[in-house]
């Protein structure tokens, strides 16, 4: 069985409160983005579950979210050993949720392959034990997220007529570290209402609260945002805790991105 695990971008990210358990309350729009990790799942007749990773350099250790997803279900269900081949293409430490997407893909594949019969709601509950972003990838449609990012409701947002470009600067940002640097505060504007504004007005109302502290620490990420506006983006923002910055354009573009700014990603059409 094979799955294509896509990335996400965050449109707006208000971090409103630090909770007693150390996590933060937030509100954000999670929006699927079409670049993909490719995951093959092969049941084995015997032996141990194994993981092989090709593509972007990532060690296949036991903390890998693919193995953690397998272990999570294996605690409760009788699963055969499997071989997982992850072809990693989504950059990590990037705010694109690639690890969470891989984990969600594994949960869905094991559910189908092993006929576990878990509903979408049950898969989301399992996914939330792997990461706050993970339930979104089970549903994988534009979602308004609150709580720690696991309380999801569908949002009416269709950017399919726009063209979204990503630039991943040459720095990785750790999510936990980014949360430590942020000062929670109530949201200034209602995020769902702001989505209804013309796209050219989003920059005045739709903010990512990580930007202030991350841009101070890594001015090169802010440079990427300025570059995208210079290139004609109607709206640009860092995604999640960074370091990726996306730009939304009215028309398809090909950007000449200097190497020192980072690597550019365009939306893929895999039909
Ligand atoms: C910031 C966001 C925005 O979508 O995405 P990324 O930038 O990572 O893609 C998410 O909140 C990231 O979710 P995810 O990456 O799944 O986080 P987890 O693995 O659950 O948590 C990693 C660490 O981030 C912190 N954390 C995470 C979520 C949250 N609402 N509050 C937190 O404080 C905690 O310190 C936690 O130990
Ligand atoms: N399958 C995986 N893909 C990517 N990262 C993974 C995976 N499994 C574990 N990780 C760890 O999770 C961290 C965050 O990964 P990811 O969710 O892709 O990034 P981001 O926080 O940018 O959304 C990585 O730094 C890596 O150490």
Q: Order of helices and strands, N to C?
A: EEEHEHHHEEEHHHHHEEE
Main beta-sheet strand count, sense and barrel state: 6 strands, mixed
Overall number of structural domains: 2
Total strand segments:
10
Global outline: globular
Strand % is: 25-35%
Q: Which bin fits the share of residues in helices?
A: 25-40%
Associated small molecules: 4-diphosphocytidyl-2-C-methyl-D-erythritol 2-phosphate, adenosine-5'-diphosphate
Give Rg in angstroms: 19 Å
Please mark out the parts with pLDDT under 50 across 5 or more consecutive residues, or reply none. none
First and last CA, distance: 18 Å
CATH class assignment of the largest domain: Alpha Beta
* Mean model confidence by pLDDT: 97
Catalytic activity: 4-CDP-2-C-methyl-D-erythritol + ATP = 4-CDP-2-C-methyl-D-erythritol 2-phosphate + ADP + H(+)
Pathway: Isoprenoid biosynthesis; isopentenyl diphosphate biosynthesis via DXP pathway; isopentenyl diphosphate from 1-deoxy-D-xylulose 5-phosphate: step 3/6
Function: Catalyzes the phosphorylation of the position 2 hydroxy group of 4-diphosphocytidyl-2C-methyl-D-erythritol.
Pfam family, one: GHMP_kinases_C
Describe, in plain words, how this protein is organized in 3D.
Catalyzes the phosphorylation of the position 2 hydroxy group of 4-diphosphocytidyl-2C-methyl-D-erythritol. The active site is at 8, 133. This protein is α+β, with helices and mostly antiparallel strands and 271 residues long. It folds into two domains: 2-154, Ribosomal Protein S5, domain 2; 163-265, GHMP kinase, C-terminal domain (Alpha-Beta Plaits). It is built from nine helices and ten strands. The strands form two sheets. Strands 1, 2, 3, 4, 5 and 6 form a six-stranded mixed sheet that branches. β1 (2-18) and β2 form a beta hairpin. α8 (211-217) crosses α9 (219-230). It is globular and about 55 Å long. The two termini are 18 Å apart. 38% of the residues are buried. The model has no long low-confidence stretch (mean pLDDT 97). It binds 4-diphosphocytidyl-2-C-methyl-D-erythritol 2-phosphate and adenosine-5'-diphosphate. 4-diphosphocytidyl-2-C-methyl-D-erythritol 2-phosphate binds next to β1, β2 and α5.
């Amino acid at each position: 069985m094979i799955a294509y695990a896509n990335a996400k971008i965050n449109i707006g990210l208000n971090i409103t409160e630090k909770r007693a358990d150390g996590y933060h309350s937030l509100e954000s729009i999670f929006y699927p983005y079409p670049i993909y990790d490719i995951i093959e799942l092969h049941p084995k007749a015997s032996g141990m579950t194994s993981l092989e990773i090709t593509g972007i350099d990532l060690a296949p250790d036991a903390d890998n979210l693919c193995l953690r997803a397998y272990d999570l279900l294996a605690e409760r269900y009788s699963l055969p050993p499997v071989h997982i081949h992850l072809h990693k293409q989504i950059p990590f430490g990037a705010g694109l949720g690639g690890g969470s997407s891989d984990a969600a893909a594994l949960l869905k594949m094991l559910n189908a392959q092993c006929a576990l019969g878990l509903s979408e709601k049950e898969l989301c509950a399992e996914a939330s034990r792997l990461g706050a972003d993970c339930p979104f990838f089970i549903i994988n449609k534009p979602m308004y997220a609150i709580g720690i990012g696991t309380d999801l409701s569908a949002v009416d947002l269709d950017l399919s007529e726009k063209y979204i470009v990503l630039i991943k600067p040459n720095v990785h940002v750790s999510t936990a570290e980014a949360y430590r640097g942020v000062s929670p505060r109530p949201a200034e504007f209602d995020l769902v209402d702001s989505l209804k504004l013309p796209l050219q007005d989003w920059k005045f109302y739709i903010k990512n609260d990580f930007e202030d502290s991350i841009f101070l620490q890594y001015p090169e990420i802010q440079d990427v945002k300025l570059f995208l506006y210079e290139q004609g983006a109607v709206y640009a923002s860092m995604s999640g805790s960074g370091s990726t910055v996306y730009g939304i354009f009215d028309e398809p573009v090909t950007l000449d991105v200097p190497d020192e700014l980072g690597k550019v990603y365009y939306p893929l059409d895999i039909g």
